[in-house]
Specification:
Elements lengths: L14 E5 L4 H12 L3 E6 L11 E4 L5 H15 L4 E4 L16 H29 L2 E6 L9 H25 L4 E8 L5 H14 L3 H11 L11 H12 L10 E4 L7
Parallel strand pairs: 1-2, 1-4, 2-3, 4-5, 5-6, 6-7
Helix pairs in contact: 1-7, 2-3, 3-4, 5-6
This protein binds NADP nicotinamide-adenine-dinucleotide phosphate (NAP).
Length: 263
């Protein structure tokens, strides 16, 4: 892309962990951090279709406590540290239709994937970061955490909203230990996850994916830029935030939404 920033190997010597780094936004972030010189570990349940040979892939379900503990042990044994943690795993696992169709199981699953996976991983890796008095943690949230869309994604929005508050609290707690914690809230992004969401809803509603996409854009109040983001555009922002260029930034929640949120 024309607007790519040049990081001149600024992340050389850094170890970065990107959860969900095999597809979509996570893959774009992992690629960008690699270009900037970091050694990048990606975690997902499967390899993904176009693995980057420069990424160190580890298999695991990050919404599961046992898998996560085993992953962290493997990372510590192999790499000794994590300087940059990108908590990117998340997504919609519950049906639309509002509160009455949502069971305890739906709530538990989406809270695990969108909130507790990050809380757990932060808790396991922060001691390593605080010991070296250096580290950056990014939480990938969503504009759904700021603007409720109960018809489509009630649990997801609640989980992302909680993630925003948790991220801010954590940033206050660890700022004086040399750790920066930031939130990034994308609007719609063209990823495999978004494609699956649109296909599923279009199927259920008996309309085309194009009609469904338009319905979603209208529902969220329109995107002034008239399109979804590319994953690489989110990756550019994240790469800046974890770089030394952003040394005074912590605690903030960065919208990347083509102008969608009206404030
Ligand atoms: N796309 C959007 O429009 C959009 C908008 C706002 C916010 N976001 C947020 O951005 C993040 C990434 O979204 P995306 O659209 O890029 O997702 P995506 O295309 O569905 O990719 C998700 C990635 O996470 C991995 N993953 C999913 N569940 C996992 C688990 N339990 N354990 C380990 N890995 C897991 C997937 O690999 P496996 O399936 O092989 O595990 C894949 O690598 C999410 O937090 C999402 O909420 C997305």
């Amino acid at each position: 892309m024309q607007n790519e920033q040049n990081y001149n190997n600024e992340l050389k010597g850094k170890i970065a962990l990107v959860t969900g780094g095999t597809k979509g936004i996570g893959k774009a972030i992992a690629d960008k951090l690699t270009q900037a010189g970091a050694k990048v570990i990606v975690v997902a349940r499967n390899h993904g279709q176009k693995p980057n040979p420069e990424h160190h892939f580890l298999a695991g379900d990050i919404s599961n406590a046992q898998d996560t503990e085993a992953l962290v042990k493997e990372i510590v044994d192999k790499f000794g540290k994590v300087d940059i943690l990108i908590n990117n795993v998340g997504g919609l696992n519950s049906p639309g239709g509002g509160y009455s169709v949502l069971t305890d199981e739906h709530w538990e699953k989406d809270l695990q994937v969108n909130l507790l996976s990050a809380v757990r991983l932060d808790r396991l890796l922060l001691p390593l970061m605080t010991a070296q008095k250096d580290g950056v943690i990014i939480h990938i949230s969503s504009t759904s955490g700021l603007v409720p869309q109960w018809e489509a994604n009630l649990v997801y929005g609640v989980a992302k909203s909680a993630l925003n508050t948790y991220s801010k609290s954590l940033s206050n707690e660890v700022a004086n230990k040399g750790i920066r914690v930031l939130t990034v809230s994308p609007g719609p992004v063209k990823t495999e996850g978004m494609e699956a969401f649109l296909n599923g809803y279009a199927n259920n509603a008996g309309i085309s994916v194009e009609q469904m996409t338009q319905t979603m854009m209208d529902k969220i109040g329109g995107i002034p830029m008239g399109r979804m983001a590319e994953p690489t555009e989110v990756a550019e922002l994240v790469c800046f935030l974890v770089s030394p260029k952003a040394s005074y930034l912590t605690g903030a929640n960065y919208l990347i939404d083509g102008g969608n949120i009206p404030l």
